[in-house]
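Researcher: Going back to the complex we discussed earlier. I've cleaned up the inputs and rechecked each line, so this should be the final set. Can you rerun the prediction on the complete assembly and write out the structure?
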Amino acid sequence: MFKIDEVARETGLTKRTIRYYEEIGLMPAPQRSEGGTRQYTQAHIEHLQRVISARDVLGFSLQEIQEYMDYAQALTGQRELYPQIREPERQLEKLREMDGTLEAQLRALDEKVSKILAMKQELEQFRDRVTAGIARIEKEQDQSEAKITEGKNS
Amino acid sequence: MFKIDEVARETGLTKRTIRYYEEIGLMPAPQRSEGGTRQYTQAHIEHLQRVISARDVLGFSLQEIQEYMDYAQALTGQRELYPQIREPERQLEKLREMDGTLEAQLRALDEKVSKILAMKQELEQFRDRVTAGIARIEKEQDQSEAKITEGKNS
DNA sequence: AATAACGTTGACGTCAACGTTAGATTTATC
DNA sequence: GATAAATCTAACGTTGACGTCAACGTTATT
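Model: Rerun complete. Updated structure for the full complex:
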């Protein structure tokens, strides 16, 4: 059982943000103590970490994250998908729709990765130029120091 | 020479956004016509596309993109890095600072990629569950259809 | 040369995602 | 059991990234 300050430290979010995420339904409301203090569990922390991941990595808006989490919930939680729907016709429709969006998401992720890798290459080239510049200046400094030393020794 | 509407169509940004990016210095101000109409070149479009990429893929704020672009400018444009600085001591300092931030950026990118891959795996599992569900329902439908056919044939 | 279509500059509006502050309560510490 | 430290709610403030609108000038078209 954690209180909000520990959760904040653990996740890197502020307390305000944590309460805000609960407020907009992005997070299950935790138990409360007698006096009303929120009591979080490990599951809450993990939930938040997934939210953060989706926010930072995918760049989703909080609303989109909301939908995504509901989605994930439906997919991991239950044994049957959409058991509430009786007609197999409608079930199939729903599932095919999900399949389509999942495929689209996967393709989007692939594109993201390749773009990131391209940018990474660019940054590596920059870094190489910078380290080369550093090496050159250091060498020049060494040489002028050597000259000074030589002068002293003569 | 493009006018703003073509640039908007080409990049997918709105005209307002394009002017805004110029306003906050995220984009070099283009030439103007006699009457003050902005005249963009291909280079402007490419610049914008890189901005969009950084915004969407990396999730940078416009300020961060700004810094990154300045950075890239300094590194690709000139032959010498910081030639305006005379003292090699200060130059070294600057270069080492750049090297540090570049390394940090590279690590951040690596982390992003690995997070994306993790999320991708999760999505793939979801997809597999969904396709399995689809297959199951289709099979059940086939069987009931077969029974009906059988009934007809008897 | 008239008119439509497009461009420009303010200026204010908006929306998401929190930050901040105040004042009351609760929990922890001595 | 007093005092300090942390939490709570409620409400208003802020910031980034644009949208929207008015009033006006510029290009294009017929």
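Model: Worth noting: The first strand of chain A starts at residue 31 and ends at 32.
Researcher: Good, that matches what I expected from the previous run.
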